[in-house]
Automatic annotation (TrEMBL):
Transferase recorded as keyword: yes
Keywords: Transferase
Molecular functions (GO terms): CoA-transferase activity
PANTHER family: SUCCINATE--HYDROXYMETHYLGLUTARATE COA-TRANSFERASE (PTHR48207:SF3)
Keyword field contains S-adenosyl-L-methionine: no
Name recorded for this polypeptide: CoA transferase
Organism superkingdom: Bacteria
Pfam (any one): CoA_transf_3
Length: 429
């Protein structure tokens, strides 16, 4: 496989490094989740040093293993052993065990692992794990200190609790699609989802935060607890100012394209050869923009004296600014804004994102290698911890690759016992 140029890739922390300096060293996460929200949370915990055991269904595994193209072939592996780019993006620093939890012997293995785990993470439908004795109530009887995190579409209670939930559905139900896209009545206007599964991602982030809070409580009291995370709850929570515009001001937000409902000017403007973002957050920056464009008279116009006035006279503000910006080349305008202290920037394609020197300087692209030696690039952990940095210890695992290792080392099963479980279809790998 072709590797990245040296000025793009940061080899950063050694991918063979252990978690000895990780902030979460010593924590064991038993991850029964799949797709994105749960795996995103467990990858974060793994990056920060936790041991993550990913439990997958034999033969099929995590749904996202098949979500492609594109795929990355593992050396000479066949088509059933290739890695989807999607799966590679959220499953590093984990060990995979393939266990049929519907088999009583398989469920017993998971219960045995849960007994000595700090966290169980799952995203099954409400009540689905109770039949296998893998719900919170069952596992808490054998491990009272267990932090058990459930991620569902709509939570463990309420009239929609039994429904399956997917990011796309929740973006619609949670209001995000009603404020995304072109303004009503303009070309191309229709309800529009965000280009990344943000309801899943945000839920994974809230789940991670909540797990760490629950572990803090566990360390102080010895008491575990059940965390009930819902995609819909999270999506409503991250409506942020748009939710408050309704709750406080009675304003029903609508799609505004690249305009901002509360700040002016804060949008994209056409340039001579493309578009540029202008993001003035205060009066000082607005005045600097006007001076840059030779529009000093706008700084003393009573209609534009503060942001609230500019919102009221949005069209009158943006028309002269747009006319002036239209004559600039994009790169020249962005450079001039930076010099003048006006926040702004380009609109990059994804490939252009990874060409930026800033991205290379921050070490956001990490090179990892599969056991076969096949290399690939991945987006690394975005926060720089000075004492306990994230580590990239293991690439995303093949389905069930560590089944024998985990069962033998953690449950003291013999190689013969593991082989018998494989022959009976209880485990794979």
């Amino acid at each position: 496989m072709q590797t990245a140029d040296s000025d793009t890739v940061s080899h950063g922390p050694d991918t063979t490094a252990d978690a000895s300096s990780g902030a979460l060293k010593g924590l064991r996460i038993l991850d029964l989740s799949r797709v994105l929200a749960g795996p995103w949370a467990s990858q974060i915990l793994g990056d920060l040093g936790a041991e993550v055991i990913k439990v997958e269904q034999p033969d099929s595994g995590d749904d996202t293993r098949a979500w492609g193209p594109p795929f990355l072939a593992d050396g000479d592996a066949g088509p059933d052993e290739r890695f989807s780019a999607y799966f590679l993006g959220c499953n590093r620093n984990k060990r995979s065990i393939a266990v049929d939890i519907a088999n009583p012997k398989g469920a017993a293995l998971i219960r045995a692992l849960a007994k000595d785990s700090d966290v169980v993470l799952e995203n099954f439908r409400v009540g689905a794990l109770e039949r296998y004795g893998l719900d919170y109530a069952s596992l808490a009887t054998i491990n009272p200190a267990l932090v058990y995190c459930s991620i569902t579409g709509f939570g463990q209670s309420g009239p929609l609790a039994s429904r399956p939930g997917y990011d796309f559905v929740v973006q619609g139900m949670g209001g995000l699609m009603s404020i995304t896209g072109q303004p009503e009545g303009t070309p191309g206007a229709e309800p529009m989802k965000v280009g990344v599964a943000v309801s899943d991602i945000f839920t994974g982030l809230y789940a991670t935060i909540s797990i760490l809070a629950a572990l803090r409580h566990r360390d102080a009291t010895g008491e575990g607890q059940h965390l009930d995370c819902a995609l819909l709850d999270t999506q409503v929570a991250v409506l942020a100012n748009q939710a408050m515009n309704w709750l406080v001001g009675g304003m029903v937000p609508k799609p505004m394209g690249n305009l901002h409902p509360n700040v002016v000017p804060y949008r994209t403007f056409p340039t001579r050869d493309g578009h540029a973002i202008v993001a003035t957050g205060n009066d000082r920056q607005f005045h600097a923009l006007c001076r840059l464009l030779g529009l000093e008279q706008m700084t003393t116009d009573p209609r534009f004296l503060d942001n609230a006035s500019r919102v009221a006279y949005r069209a009158e503000v943006e028309k002269p600014l747009g006319d002036a910006i239209a004559g600039w080349a994009t790169a020249d305008f962005i450079a001039a804004m930076a010099e003048a202290g006006v926040p702004g920037g380009p609109i990059n394609r994804i490939d252009q994102v990874f060409e930026q020197p800033q991205i290379a300087a921050r070490g956001l692209v990490q090179e990892m290698r599969l056991p076969s030696g096949t290399s690939f690039r991945a987006v690394g952990f975005p926060v720089k911890l000075s004492a306990t940095p994230a580590t990239y210890r293991a690439p995303p695992p093949a389905l069930g690759a560590q089944t024998g290792e985990v069962l033998q080392t953690l449950l003291n099963l013999s190689e013969t016992e593991v082989s018998e479980l494989r022959a009976a279809g209880v485990v794979g790998g």
